[in-house]
Specification:
The chain is α+β, with helices and mostly antiparallel strands. The protein has two helices and three strands, in the order αβαββ. A three-stranded mixed beta sheet has the order 1-2-3.
């Protein structure tokens, strides 16, 4: 996904190491793709790239961090952030 974004002209940095994650492949791809797409659309800056980091988490989990440099989520919308179809 990062390679495709770069080919599309987006500035994306990836800090990753080889890890194995168990889950539904299409669901993982959709979730990660949504995070990356939103970061590129709403938060990409000409000076600052979108930053993606993948690392071992706690208790055998995998930690994925997607950081952009956009304005952020308004305080009033934080409570609804995890609900489906929320913009």
């Amino acid at each position: 996904m990062v390679r495709d974004a770069r080919l599309g002209g987006h500035k994306v940095e990836l800090d990753s190491q080889p890890l194995t994650a168990f889950g539904k492949p299409l669901a993982l791809k959709r979730a990660l793709g949504n995070l990356l797409d939103n970061a590129m659309f709403y938060g990409e800056s000409q000076q600052q790239p979108v930053q993606v980091a993948i690392a071992p988490g706690e208790a055998g989990m995998v930690s994925v961090t997607v950081r952009d440099h956009g304005p952020g989520v308004p305080e009033a919308a934080l409570a609804r952030l995890g609900q489906p179809y929320t913009r």
